Amino acid sequence: MADVARRPAGAAGGISDEKRQRLLELVRGRTAARPTDLAEDEVMVWPTLVVVEALSAVIFTFLLLVASIAVNPPLVDIANPTVTPNPSKAPWYFLNLQELLLHMHPALAGVIVPTMALVLIAAIPFVDRSPLGVGILFTSDKGKKITVFSAIFTTIVLIALIAFDSEIGVTRSLSGKVAPVVYEQLIPVAVMVGFSVVLGVLVSKIYRPTRRELIIALFTGFVVSYFVLTIVGTFFRGYGMEIQLYWPWTNLHEGAH
Fold it and tell me: pTM for the full model?
């Protein structure tokens, strides 16, 4: 009895506080409340974020429904298998790849480049394993500046390259002078890799980024390329897939030329 009386209250029965807490949870059938580790400027994903996303989805669906009722789609006559539309364009989500097809070998534009892009995107979590800045849009203020810089750089470079190939044309200039593999594969690959390296070097020199911020720069270049190529293919490719300053919707389904 004397030994028991001399035991500390926290060690009675040889049960630690952690074990006692688990036993209480088992008896009550539920987990005891614990203090959260959220900072003052943080909120829980549920319900704060999920509610906003759900409302956004409902509003977007409603606006899409209204637009589909109010605006008639540019439907034409039943397809004639003997007449090829001019221009003959892919669905909008593939117009970026169709734009690439105009500048390089079909296997490169339609298979190799998209596959490599997906592989590199999937590799990002294995390259950037730092927990710092997780869940913060653009990671930091410097990340926002890098995103804007990368978007502007990519847009200017893409427009310049498309204009150059449209006016001068690498294929037209080198066709018959060198092997097709040079202007269909080697030069396009060199241009894509080269300007990606240039973007990375410029961002590194100007902003001194972390690994994640450098990845943000390259990923921004990819996303902007997707949209710029889609916009060019949609609005600036006319008859014969030639560049036009504006390709009006009213001429989209005119007869073949």
Answer: 0.69
